[in-house]
Amino acid sequence: MRRTLTGLVAILTMATAVAVSPASARVVRMQTVVTLTERTDPAVKQALREALDTSVRGAVAMGFSRIRVDAIQVLQDTVVLATVATDGDDDDEAPDNARDQ
């Protein structure tokens, strides 16, 4: 009886492991805003570098392994960087608002 019960538990454990899909990846959309001190090319580039650095550090802190830039906006006094971070390894699943590059 004990051997049968142990075998049944082992089969149920394996079935549960197979039933849980490892393909489900976490995805988060982030938006980072950096203030522009002046609206010159070097200032915009520096603000963009700062926004990207902040986004990457945030994604790494949350445990994400991939990040991609979704949009960049240069407004009157700010730079807005929109990114998508994921911990999935598959690039086949693009978000609904994915654009052709």
Describe this structure in words.
The protein has a domain of 63 residues: Dodecin subunit-like (2-Layer Sandwich), CATH 3.30.1660. Helices cover 39% and strands 27% of the residues. The protein contains two helices and three strands, in the order αβαββ. Strands 1-3-2 form a three-stranded antiparallel β-sheet, covered by helices on one side. The chain starts with a helix and ends in a 15-residue tail after the last strand.
Structural class: alpha+beta
Bin the strand percentage.
25-35%
Number of helices: 2
Number of DSSP E strands: 3
Which strand order do you get reading across the main beta sheet?
A: 1-3-2
**What's the Cα radius of gyration?**
22 Å
Distance between the termini: 62 Å
* pLDDT averaged over residues: 77
CATH class of the domain at 24-86: Alpha Beta
Give the overall shape, derived from the CA principal axes: elongated
CATH topology of the domain at 24-86: Dodecin subunit-like
Q: Which stretches are poorly predicted, pLDDT < 50 over at least 5 residues?
A: 12-21
The largest pleated sheet is described as: 3 strands, antiparallel
Helix content: 25-40%
CATH architecture of the domain at 24-86: 2-Layer Sandwich
SSE arrangement:
Layout: H1 2-19, E1 27-35, H2 41-61, E2 66-74, E3 78-86
Antiparallel strand pairs: 1-3, 2-3
